[in-house]
Specification:
heterodimer; A: alpha/beta; five-stranded parallel sheet; 5 helices; B: 157 residues; Chemotaxis protein chec; eight-stranded antiparallel sheet; 8 strands
Chain lengths: 124, 157
């Protein structure tokens, strides 16, 4: 069954790269929704529809971690996989993310194969 | 410290160009600035700027000639860009963000945790950028298909 993915990143270029990586790989039939920051992400987020969220950390208006906290406050969102795609890569930052119910993370820069591998861990 | 910063910049640039841009940049001799040196590289058309703060205050600036910015964006997105547009501006910001993020991770590994600002991009003709401290400033020139890219790191304790 195709997975429903929400991509949240303030860079339109990064969203294009992420979407191309997904569409060119084994998840080519995924349905993808885009959001340009955390606040925009909350507007389009549908806990009954989304399977996976790929979120940047450093964004204006509502950053990625604050966005994740808001998403996790919604009871029906617990089953949704959240992967952060971020330049934040220190052990301290990753621990902070995991403590806030982020399932996994990818450090920018990344390859298409690395992204697909992370998604495959939950959806294959 | 300057040698460490040069190594951090090289590693960050290597990571980005090998994973997401797929061009081999040509490294040129790094310039460690001295008092009264000029801060700004002359040949640049678009610059991404990221601030770092915490145990030290730093700025990361990534300067591109128009041709090198177009080449990097085209290669990242697999589309041929001929002029600087919103995608090129966004790509320069994102490359600057990732180079800064790479440098930040290296500092974190030696116990210096830093926070990073969102990138700002400036483009046009004859604009100046000033580094935050000429006494602690490194300028690293690269060639992208024969065109200039500079990474400039400057910090205050």
């Amino acid at each position: 069954m195709p997975i429903n993915i929400l991509v949240v990143d303030d860079s339109a270029v990064m969203r294009k790269i992420i979407i191309k990586a997904i569409k060119d790989g084994i998840f080519s039939d995924a349905s993808i929704t885009e959001a340009s920051d955390g606040a925009d992400g909350l507007k389009v987020f549908d806990p009954n529809k989304m399977d996976l969220i790929l979120a940047d950390w450093n964004m204006p208006n509502l950053n990625g971690l604050e966005f994740v906290k808001k998403v996790r406050e919604i009871k029906t969102s617990k089953k949704i996989v959240i992967i952060m795609i971020t330049t934040e890569g220190s052990a301290a930052k990753m621990e902070e993310a995991m403590n806030n119910e982020v399932d996994n993370y990818i450090t920018k820069p990344f390859t298409s194969a690395q992204l697909e591998q992370k998604i495959s861990k939950y959806f294959l | 410290m300057n040698e460490k910063i040069i190594a951090y910049i090289e590693k960050a640039v290597d990571e980005i160009f090998s994973t997401m841009i797929f061009i081999q940049p040509v490294y040129e001799k790094p310039i460690i600035r001295k008092k009264n040196d000029v801060c700004v590289p002359k040949k640049k058309d678009i610059t991404g700027i990221v601030g770092l703060g915490g145990k030290l205050t730093a700025s990361v600036m990534v300067h591109f000639e128009k041709e090198s910015a177009l080449k990097v964006t085209s290669s990242m997105l697999g589309v041929d860009y001929k002029e600087i547009d919103s995608d090129v501006i966004d790509a320069v910001g994102e490359v600057s963000n990732m180079i800064s993020g790479g440098i930040k991770r290296e500092f974190a590994a030696i116990g210096i945790e830093l926070d990073q600002s969102l990138p700002i991009v400036v483009n046009g003709k004859d604009f100046d950028t000033n580094c935050i401290n000429i006494d602690n400033s490194v300028l690293m020139p690269f060639k992208i298909d024969g065109h200039n890219m500079f990474v400039e790191f400057s910090f205050k304790d």
